[in-house]
Amino acid sequence: KVLVGNAYTAIDHHQIKFLPQALIEIDSSGVIDRVLEPTAPDYQAAYQAAQQAHLLEKVPADQVIFPGFVDLHVHAPQWPQAGLALDKPLAAWLNDYTFPLEAKYQDLDFARQVYHELVHELLAQGTTTVLFFGTIHPEANLVLGEESLHQGLRTLIGRVAMDNPDQTPAYYRDSSSQAAIVATETFIHQLNDLGKDNPLSPIPVITPRFVPSCTDATLAGLGRLARKYDLPVQSHVSESNWEHQYAIDRFGIHDAAVLDHFGLLTSRTVLAHATQLTPEDQALLRQRKTAIAHCPISNAYFGNGVLPVNDLLAAKNRVGLGTDISGGYSPSLYDNLRHAVALSQVRNDGISRDDEGIANSRISMVASFYLATVGGAEALNLPVGRIQAGKIADLQVVKDRFKRPTETAQERFERILYQTHRSEIMQVYTQGDQVYQA
Ligand code: GUN
Ligand code: FE
């Protein structure tokens, strides 16, 4: 397949590359072979060859091609409550709303119905890769894997481990540390058997919910499993004042250091939120090449602060974006990249007349787009997120409903990212195949 159209891809968090009328050649395995600009010597020949072979797909002039977005933090089971109870503090929201909902996923019909809808919704929002938290139920998590595979969403899925009786309800917890480890290991094998040779087959993820919900034995056991199977790890870190303080009270150190102690900070780890990390914690993550999932909408409700994204990017911490459904109400990374910019300006300028804010906190829309594409891809060590030879063809095609003949390519890029509605995301591709059409 060969796509021809106006494309944008991030170079780094300061720069994008505009590719006018780029010819994007995708091989039969769904990988981008070549990206040619009209000035390239081979362009005309490649164009004509594609046309003759009926492989050419011309993207109309009022549409642009972006890499598909990478969502680093979604709680799949929380989709039915996205947009509910966000005026509650974190602990109350978890205990009164979230745990009762997640417990319902022992009902596989319910799981099927929710996960079918969620996977479709994420693709429709231009998201092509998702790092999912599931529930404690291996079977329901497999249903999520089946739905993802069936609909063509690239996923990584974690069976949530939570066994600390002090911080989890009796109706929704692992009965023991051993039970948590055995269920996690079983799930790894089951998920690995799903869609074995399919390049989109879901990847299992070691998933301690967060430090408060796990006993020491479970944290240690999960660290061993991550090493034994060389798997990605995901959790929450320093999300709120309460969570940050909890680790200090129980261990005398910060939760980032606790995760490190148990072997859970690796170059394949993604930690959500991180708003309360100290500079030392940030340095530890940097040293371990552990990534942060920045969840700007969710952090506004539960984060007790705004993540210093600009500092983290400057220091070369790995950062991507997450919706955190349902701590964040929106399944759209477009909404989140807009909030990431807006909140960075609040951090920069302060919250009142007497508050001078924190200088150099602003990020641009380019940086936000970088987080949603390259940042996420690098956090997961996956060859996606760029329109470039050698990367997998996970793409979205977006309609621009306004004509602004005098604006520059850079201005058009920014405006489209601010103004795109879900209904204008026309086509979504994963591994070179169209998996969604408006
Ligand atoms: N901390 C532990 N569990 C959760 C969760 O489900 N959502 C959020 N936002 N934070 C958490
Ligand atoms: Fe979360």
Provide a descriptive summary of the structure in words.
With 438 residues, this protein is α/β, with parallel strands linked by helices. It folds into 2 domains: 2-67 and 386-437, Urease, subunit C, domain 1; 69-379, TIM Barrel. The chain is 39% helix and 22% strand. The protein is built from 14 helices and 16 strands. The protein has helices at 43-52, 90-103, 108-124, 138-151, 177-193, 216-229, 241-251, 255-261, 279-288, 296-302, 309-314, 333-349, 365-379, 409-419; strands at 2-10, 16-26, 32-36, 56-58, 63-67, 69-75, 127-133, 154-161, 203-208, 233-237, 269-273, 291-294, 318-321, 395-399, 425-430, 433-437. Strands 1, 2, 3, 4, 5, 14, 15 and 16 form an 8-stranded mixed beta sheet that branches. A 4-stranded parallel beta sheet has the order 6-7-8-9. β1 and β2 (16-26) form a beta hairpin. The longest helix has 17 residues, at 108-124. The two termini are 20 Å apart. 53% of the residues are buried.
Percent of sequence in beta strands: 15-25%
Mean pLDDT: 97
Q: What count of helical segments does DSSP give?
A: 14
Based on DSSP secondary structure assignment, what is the total number of beta strands?
A: 16
One letter per element, helices H and strands E, the order comes to: EEEHEEEHHEHEHEHEHHEHEHHEHHEHEE
InterPro entries: Amidohydro-rel (IPR006680), Metal-dep_hydrolase_composite (IPR011059), Metal_Hydrolase (IPR032466), Metallo-dep_hydrolases (IPR051607)
Organism: Limosilactobacillus alvi
Pfam family, one: Amidohydro_1
Protein name: Amidohydrolase family protein
